[in-house]
Amino acid sequence: MFSDFCTEDKSKEILQRVCAEYQQGVLTGDLCEDLCVAGRVEYKRCLYYENGKKVMAASWRGVPVVLKSKLENFSSYEALALLEYQDTAGGEEELSPLDVVFYATLEIKNSLGLETGTNLTLPRLWGQKLKENERTYSRAELASLWALLQQEEYTFLRVLQDLTHHVAKILGSCGHFYAVEYLAAGHAWDQHIFSLDELTLSPSPSPWSGQEKTITARDMVPRVALSFLEMVEHFENDFSHSLHLCDIKPENFAIRKDLTVVAIDVDMAFFEPKMRDILEQNCTSDNDCNFFDCISKCDKTKNRCGSKRKNSNLQVICEKIFRPWFSPTLLGAKAGLPLQVALQRAVQECAEIDGGEDAKRSWAVRKQLQDLLVELIQEDTGNQGEGPEHKTRRVHTARDQDGANGRFPHPYPCF
């Protein structure tokens, strides 16, 4: 839909402008030299432009990357007030690493809605590196860092990539553009959601048997589903505040070659403090309290939405990803196998639970899903040596026993 604006000429013109400003000393970053001088960054194609956001595919030293910026021009970002103060002070005072930490921490707090006292602040992640450097930073470095920190997605990914492997990694930056690892994204139209064709999966040791095996599409689905469950548990329990995903769809996730699920579009991901602020709005009915995939209830006595989310990441993933994945329609003859029937029922229960209100039941459902997926992988691994006759016979027997008569659910910084 943005093809008229997302053109090769426009993309190359934007990158040329970035390089011109790099040559002038306006901006910098660890990607700039390769992009603008050494020619080690090869532009591939424009991916999309939307509301000023620019996204392009490129290759950096032979590694596929995605170049992103929330705004097209470096000058469109707010200038760092500290640099303006330095100008008015006559340039006599130099910025210390602690100055950088302080101002960057405030920006992260504002961007993510976190308090500076939590364990997700900049000093914990970058402060030690800054102290070890024991040097001042150029105007281009500080201006570039400030432009990056004004981009919520950059801030989110940069902070979390040191704490979890379930978000895309930032590989480098040049001015206001940053490079993110290129991953095989999901597709709503693909019955497996993630296509094996986009991955180079060599034989790898099976965690269940210790033997090497080639991962097939049949094996991939339960393994990726397990990674989704791990991601949900990680986002809920392993940070200072729960992390809410309010736009859950296949296109917003990707997988690495080891089948780890990765959140690649985090524009609609919020920590608990910011989530509460978003949900707590005026209302006349529960429908007024729906913020995409994050919903709460309307207190009609106060005409105010509750600040606590009613549903959960797990419930929405079960509803929008797992239920289509494990539906009888896609499973075909396998849908009648006892293990598949149990999994379908567990997914259905998971999709209907209000996980935000019943944490104990939500944990039990997640544990049941995890156990069933592990058992499914073990079963598939054990059946690899079976002949086609035996497999057909097993399916037929299971369908005779359980049937399908309506019993199944519907289907950097620069330094």
UniProtKB/TrEMBL annotation:
Pfam families per UniProt: PIP49_C, PIP49_N
FAM69 N-terminal domain: residues covered: 2-84
Species classification: Eukaryota, Metazoa, Chordata, Craniata, Vertebrata
Region listing for Disordered, in residue ranges: 378-415
SUPFAM superfamilies associated with the record: Protein kinase-like (PK-like)
UniProt protein name: FAM69 N-terminal domain-containing protein
Membrane topology: Single-pass type II membrane protein
Compartments, record wording: Endoplasmic reticulum membrane
Organism: Sinocyclocheilus grahami
Domain FAM69 protein-kinase, first and last residues per copy: 145-352
Gene from which this protein is expressed: dipk1c
